[in-house]
Design brief:
alpha+beta; about 30% helix; globular
């Protein structure tokens, strides 16, 4: 396991344990090209139509800092006694990561809940950008 990947995992766990000391918890951690680790949580909303993924805050922070995202990870747990589960980025978040190119690495869900990262290119081998002559 790469040092970067473990650092992201640890940053997300720390945020979950701080922000959600009991009950359900979820957080994301991303790494930028300069080595910064940015974390975020999903906002609490009263209307589910307004919800956003846990990663969005960190992606927006990277945009604000004008830094490219190189790695993305999302974790959740059912309660404070449960294990942390690695969540693959949803299709929308995969499209958000495309902004930084096909080499961005994202943690993925595995049967063994192993810490595995794949490039966006690997997750989206038939990306629609091909119709414009672009290769992800």
């Amino acid at each position: 396991m790469e040092h970067i990947e473990k650092d992201l995992y640890d940053a997300a766990v720390q945020l979950i344990e701080t922000r959600y000391p009991t009950g359900w918890g979820g957080a994301a951690a991303v790494r930028t090209a300069s080595g910064k680790i940015l974390t975020s949580v999903a906002p609490d909303v009263k209307n589910d139509a307004l919800s956003l993924c846990m990663e969005v805050g960190a992606y927006l922070e990277a945009h604000k800092l004008n830094e490219a995202v190189t790695h993305s990870l999302c974790l959740c747990r059912e309660d404070e006694q449960s294990e942390f589960l690695i969540l693959s980025p949803c299709g929308v978040c995969q499209e958000r990561l495309v902004h930084w190119g096909g080499d961005v690495k994202a943690a993925i869900t595995t049967k063994g809940n192993d810490l595995v990262f794949k490039t966006i290119r690997e997750l989206m081998p038939h990306h629609w950008s091909l119709v414009n002559g672009d290769v992800l």
